[in-house]
Amino acid sequence: MLPMESAVAPPRVALADVRRLVVERTDPIAGRCRYVTDLGARQVPQPILLARRGESFDGVIENALPQPTTVHFHGLTLPEAQDGAGFDAIAPGARKSVRFEVKNRSGLYWFHPHPHGFTAEQVYAGLTGLLVVTDEDDDALDAALALAPGNRLALAIADARVVGGAMRPYAPSVEDCLHGWLGNRALVNGQLDAAWIVRPGWVRLQILNTCNARGLLVAFRGGETLVPFHLLGTDGGLLAAPRELDRVFLYTGERVDIGIDLRGRRALVAVSLEFDPRHHTGGAAPRHRHAARKRYAPLAAGTVCESASGAAEGRLEDGAELALFALRVDGTPMRTPPLPSRLSVLPEPAAQPEAPTRRMRLDFDERAGFLIDQAPYRADEIAFSVSRGTREVWEIKNSPISMPHPMHLHGFGFRVLRRQGTYGDARRLATEPGGRLATDLGVKDTVVLWPNETVWLAMDFTLPQEVAFRGAQRFMFHCHNLEHEDGMMMRNFSVI
């Protein structure tokens, strides 16, 4: 049943106006945290940040947590010092000045913690923020859709363990840290049972999966039937042309931009449909050991990845159906123009199939957990280096004895060239040339690999002239299942 009240929209703040971003804990018992922006005259908690392509951020990040943290601007092309990876964590009570210019295409980007060993705990505590970047293509699409006020929403979907009306704090067992921390209720922009009132006509939804580990198969129900929608964009902005779908996979860190025609509808419910999550990992689950964790207490009372088994109460298995949010349609019907046949000029993949190929493998080791190229992560190690302007094909193969891994690249977008070995539920959605899904057609920074699947990615390490990189810059390639990330399923590489 649809809630009668509309969800409270998060405040929107211009990125250029932010002078200070504070990371603070609000509830030591439940371990909840939040971001607070300081605009000089006022403070705004958990805002959606807005930036025009070419605008700058010049502010201070202050850590008011009892743990080290960083702020990683996921999807943006930034130098190492501004990227917010775990190389230079901000100690409790310390601050860091950050300045950068947004040079990426319009799209939904986001920011979140990335300190080694603490990422999953801090993200689950509520430390996620949305960054909406706009440009001329974005403006043209909104105008073409004749969007009514309130009919464009930026939504971050997480899952939480809720028992007896209360959210359980983060205290994963060893098994949770192997497969990922899974909740039983959806949080959308931090709210349970979220619902929005929208006007008739087109609605545009920019959606991010911020779950620690849960994959989403996003669809929309009008009564008992699925309502078709149009995929407009992915991680790095708009597609060249829309694709009509009735469901789309969205794994952690991935984003989709969706248009839905609500003419003649009174309500719509977003759900994650049931699917086979393909958790094929066998053997014992290794314990995660982080030297940094010995020096800092958890955000809430509880152990992290230490107990042999945890209470399953409040856990809904990956791939189970989950209600996400609702839309209620109200108001005078609007003019609904046709969807444009062209959305943007999408750059062709710079690295063609004949470009040099770099091969990687995703594996599982019973002693060390999930690995890239059979190597446990070391913060001081550079796995490989590439020269600025290099174009490569990355061939990445996932082990058959594995599970889905959403692999994220810091600092650079890429294009998916083809897939091979895609399994059942995802295979049925692989309708594009090269065995690709519709979500593979745009600019990506995160791509999911199913067990026994191989993907080929076109990498371009050419940087905008305005992005000043001095000397070698370290970046990361890692799994965005956050328990796997904290389990050190990461590799460092440098751009020189």
Description:
- The protein has 496 residues and is mostly beta strands.
- The chain has a domain at 357-495: Cupredoxins -  blue copper proteins (Immunoglobulin-like), CATH 2.60.40.420.
- The chain is built from six helices and 35 strands.
- The longest helix is centred in the N-terminal third of the chain and has 10 residues, at 136-145.
- The radius of gyration is 21 Å and the shape is globular.
- The chain starts with 11 loop residues before the first strand and ends with a strand.
Task: List the keywords.
Immunoglobulin-like, about 500 residues, globular, about 40% strand, single chain, seven-stranded mixed beta sheet, six-stranded mixed beta sheet, mainly beta, 35 strands
Provide a quick synopsis of the model.
This protein is mainly β and 496 residues long. The chain is built from six helices and 35 strands.
How many β-strands, per DSSP? 35
- The residue fraction in helices comes out at under 10%
Largest sheet: 7 strands, mixed
Mean pLDDT over all positions = 92
CATH topology of the domain at 357-495: Immunoglobulin-like
Q: How many helix segments? A: 6
